[in-house]
Amino acid sequence: MQIESLYHSPHTKWAYSYDKDTFHLRVRTKKNDVDQVTAVTGNKYDWKKFHNDYEMKKIATDRYFDYWETELSPVQKRFSYAFGCNLVMKRYG
To answer: Contact 30/2 with Cβ under 8 angstroms?
Structure first.
């Protein structure tokens, strides 16, 4: 995986409230570099009680990148998040 191609910003179109209960997260990866992206979310002060994983959907592709998005409705309004990626396994020979 080319980590330098992974992009997310906690502002504007990459992370925003859709309505009072729904939040959207987006991330960009190199085109065809990962099979799946997961948003790992939770309350950093009570992770054991309040955490969840959300599978992200590939919503767009251009010449260089894939764009992923998920919609979540956290139990608590305060939450942290990170991203996990499953790599594309390529066979050679």
So the answer is: yes
